[in-house]
């Protein structure tokens, strides 16, 4: 093991992120509130040094999935999107009422989630820019403490948030409602994320523990079913696999008795047979 690359700031480095390509790094320092973007294939000089973007400490930074933009959050209660190609700010996102502590892009690049010490999550549609007219979708009925972390699942169907209220909440990203919460930590939950296969959630806390939660059978959890019913969705048991699915997932076709996954499996078999013939 050897050191491959390093960069320097004039202040305490508060946050950093690496691009999906592994070629770019972004970091921010406290005191001077400077953000630097680095190309790890070159020497130790940054390709961008961004000054005066925020008026407070930079709390979190994330790369857009296509690596063309970064989002930064700050104690100045804003989040900003900075374009690496034009070297300019393309969006200033305001609306949180306290420190914006975290941010995450959806994996399809269409949404941005920001979390705040005001106990809320804001979902910004950055693909269409509709937030400029209607504002973000706000999720503020869940946490009783400051939010410390947020992340999307691999298929963007779920969102996970961690909080200083010692709880972790998994949200349905389609309906922006709580699916269920993960309780058990005895201190602030500082970070949370999904595994790539979405079967597990990983959390860490000031209680000096890291916890791995099996969420694969979440549709069987009573709180998950209760939340679906509270949305006015009729739940049906699949006649083939037995799992619950909603009428909405069936395309409002009340004659269907199997979930979409079982129907897709059968369709795949038919297509394979046709291809062989």
What does this structure look like?
- A hairpin with a 3-residue loop joins strand 6 and strand 7.
- The longest helix is centred in the C-terminal third of the chain and has 17 residues.
- The protein has a 4-stranded antiparallel β-sheet with strand order 1-2-3-4, with no helix packed on it. A 4-stranded antiparallel β-sheet has the order 5-6-7-8, with no helix packed on it.
- Helix content is 11%, strand content 41%.
- It has 3 helices and 21 strands.
- By secondary structure, it is mostly beta strands.
- The protein is globular.
- The C terminus is likely disordered.
Secondary structure topology:
Blueprint: E1 13-18, E2 24-29, E3 35-39, E4 48-50, E5 58-63, E6 69-74, E7 78-83, E8 88-94, E9 100-105, E10 111-116, E11 121-125, H1 131-134, E12 137-139, E13 147-152, E14 158-163, E15 167-172, E16 177-183, E17 189-194, E18 200-205, E19 210-214, H2 222-230, E20 235-237, E21 244-246, H3 260-276
Antiparallel strand pairs: 1-2, 2-3, 3-4, 5-6, 6-7, 7-8, 9-10, 10-11, 11-12, 13-14, 14-15, 15-16, 17-18, 18-19, 20-21
């Amino acid at each position: 093991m050897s050191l491959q690359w390093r960069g320097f700031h004039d202040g305490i480095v508060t946050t950093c992120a690496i691009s999906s390509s592994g070629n770019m790094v972004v970091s921010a320092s406290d005191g001077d509130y400077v953000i630097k973007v680095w190309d790890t294939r070159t020497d130790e000089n940054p390709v961008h040094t961004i000054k005066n973007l925020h008026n407070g400490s930079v709390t979190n930074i994330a790369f857009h999935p296509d690596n063309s933009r970064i989002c930064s959050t700050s104690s100045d209660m804003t989040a900003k999107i900075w374009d690496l190609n034009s070297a300019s700010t393309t969006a200033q996102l305001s609306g949180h009422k306290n420190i914006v502590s975290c941010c995450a892009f959806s994996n399809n690049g269409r949404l941005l989630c920001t979390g705040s010490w005001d106990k809320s999550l804001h979902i910004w549609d950055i693909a269409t820019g509709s937030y400029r007219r209607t504002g973000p979708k706000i999720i503020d009925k869940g946490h009783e403490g400051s939010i410390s972390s947020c992340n999307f699942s691999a298929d963007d169907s779920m969102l996970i948030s961690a909080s200083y209220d010692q709880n972790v909440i998994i949200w349905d990203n389609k309906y922006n409602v709580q699916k269920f919460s993960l309780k058990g930590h005895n201190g602030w939950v500082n970070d949370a994320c999904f595994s790539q296969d979405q079967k597990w959630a990983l959390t860490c806390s000031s209680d000096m523990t890291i916890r791995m939660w099996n969420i694969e059978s979440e549709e069987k959890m009573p709180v998950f079913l209760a939340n679906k019913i509270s949305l006015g969705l009729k739940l049906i048991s699949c006649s083939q696999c037995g799992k619950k699915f909603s009428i909405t997932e069936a395309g409002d076709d009340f004659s269907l008795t199997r979930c979409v996954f079982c129907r897709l499996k059968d369709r795949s078999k038919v297509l394979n047979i046709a291809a062989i013939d």
